[in-house]
Amino acid sequence: MKRFVCRPGVAEVKTTKGVIRGYEYDGLTIFKGVPYAEARRFHRPEPLKPWDGVRECTSYGYTCPIAVPRRPQGEISVPHRYWVENEDCLNLNLWTPALDGGKRPVLVWLHGGGFSDGSSIEQVAYDGANLARRGDVVVVTINHRLNILGYLDLSEFGDEYENSGNAGTDDIIAALRWVHDNIDAFGGDPGNVTVFGQSGGGAKVTTLLQSPEADGLFHRGINMSGVIGPILADANGSGREVAEAMMAELGISTVREMETVPYAQLRAAYDRVSPALMVQGRYVGNAPYPNRFYAGDPLLNGFRAESANVPLLVGSVFGEFLGFCKMDGFEPVMTDEAAKAALISLVGSEIEPFIPLFRRAYPQRPLQDMARLDTAFRAPEIPYMRMRSAMNNCTYSYLFDMTFDVNDRTVAWHCSDIPYVFANCDLVEYTHQAGMEKLEQQIVDTVLAFARTGNPGNASVPAWAPSTPDTENIMVFGNDTHLAPNFDHELIEKLDPIMTPVIMKILKASMDEIQH
Fold this sequence. Notes:
- By secondary structure, the chain is of the alpha/beta class.
- It folds into 3 domains: about 5-70 and about 80-230 and about 295-310, Alpha/Beta hydrolase fold, catalytic domain (Rossmann fold), CATH 3.40.50; about 240-280, no CATH class; about 320-415 and about 460-515, no CATH class.
- It contains 14 helices and 17 strands.
- It has helices at about 130-135, 145-150, 165-180, 200-210, 240-250, 255-260, 265-280, 300, 335-345, 355-360, 380-390, 420, 435-455, 490-510; strands at about 5, 10-15, 20, 25, 30-35, 55, 90-95, 105-110, 140, 190-200, 220-225, 310-315, 395-400, 405, 410, 475, 480-485.
- The strands form 3 sheets. The protein has a 12-stranded mixed sheet, sandwiched between helices. A 3-stranded mixed sheet has the order 2-3-6, with no helix packed on it.
- Helix 5 (about 240-250) crosses helix 7.
- The longest helix has 22 residues, at about 490-510.
- The chain is globular and about 70 Å long.
- The chain starts with a strand and ends in a 6-residue tail after the last helix.
- About 50% of the residues are buried.
């Protein structure tokens, strides 16, 4: 029987601001909804005020209000949890094997959803218990401000709003400071912190590398499907135009008044004025804002030299967003001739030159899978890896290459690798097929090895050298996990110019089907 204890005097920890109480369950001590900072709208986070007594932290905290109301869908592919939204959302959740000063590696999860959506608990697979238990590590998941609450530049309206365009990143840095100042009391090592995240969460790993105030607060990074080129590109331009348009809609004249407008009204005003500005290519927020606090997208500006020695593990999955989308003319089983005809119809040009490249890169896959091969993520990832690996000897690459028994047959989609990373395959249905346990073990062992040492190599996978500018040593995780240096470079380079525009067109027509 699993042991559960939740009562005063048990699982109590003195933090720098006061005592909090969690509970014990199945060999772990768990804390939920732990506050790490507080913030006024559009302002930088501030330290918590100390409290007396014991603060109960046994329930998940508020999550940030999001841009579009959630509509349950796609739960087979990405099982979700929904929670109460409120701007008072600067809180974190923590799983630890013991409150014993054990100096365990700490893994801090940054959720997906771009910079506009998501939460620390949104996906069922985000639960940190199994990873903490199996790896003897401390797992932390955090909430922070998003969309116009977290990424709306108002710097022209006064110094107090100087970094409002990166308030959400400031929140993440505040959470990392909380970890640095408190994690030893939870059995963790403040000198061994790995930030890891997927999609927007992976992009947030990059923003931390580019943020001077994050230096020293984390020591390794895992970027899963987070090199996304223009989809999550930096915002440019001034926020004055969109802010003044919002104020006109709201019948107010100052940003200070905007601070007190109920979020629903603020969001409605933004939704009314932003589409026209977006069409004109004007600034509308919702992405990191380059300034003295954030050095900008490294593909455009280079990596900060101060981050050079932070080990990085970077990768993506075979299908990414295309794993969700319907494609006319394609079936789970097709002849090569039928697949060729469907591919020509899809891309609007001859595909014969790409076929031998695809077969060489993916000899086990049928030809029709070329229609599902992601280039939108993978194409910018290659120069990202080349640039990063030129700085150090601790940059590693992977690809998640699976096919699942969903709707007869579906290639790995965006988020499909998350349950493996968290050792949570038992919590979702689609992973339950031949080879699940072996692949989960390989991926969990990789994450844990990297968190402990900065090197993902371990006994469950083949020998794995770091990448160099000339050789991207890609660990291909799947039914036959293997190291494949540069295996897809020529294919991606030649396919990207015709495939990425197709992907963007499909995404525009299928956004309701995309999950995170």
